[in-house]
Amino acid sequence: MSEAIQAASLSMLSDLERLRSIGSNVANASTPGFRAERTVQRVFQDALSSAASGSSNLAQLQVLLDSKAGALRDTGRAMDLAIDGPGYFQIDVGGEILFSRRGDFRVDAAGRLSNEEGLPVLGEGGEIVLTGGGTDFEVDRQGAISERGQRIGKLAIAHFGEGATLTHISGGLYRASEGPEVSDRSTVIQKHLEMANVDIVQESLNLVEVGRHANFIGQAIRGYDQMLDVAINELGRR
Question: In degrees, to the nearest 5, what angle opens at C-alpha 181 toward C-alphas 192 and 114?
Answer without folding.
Answer: 40
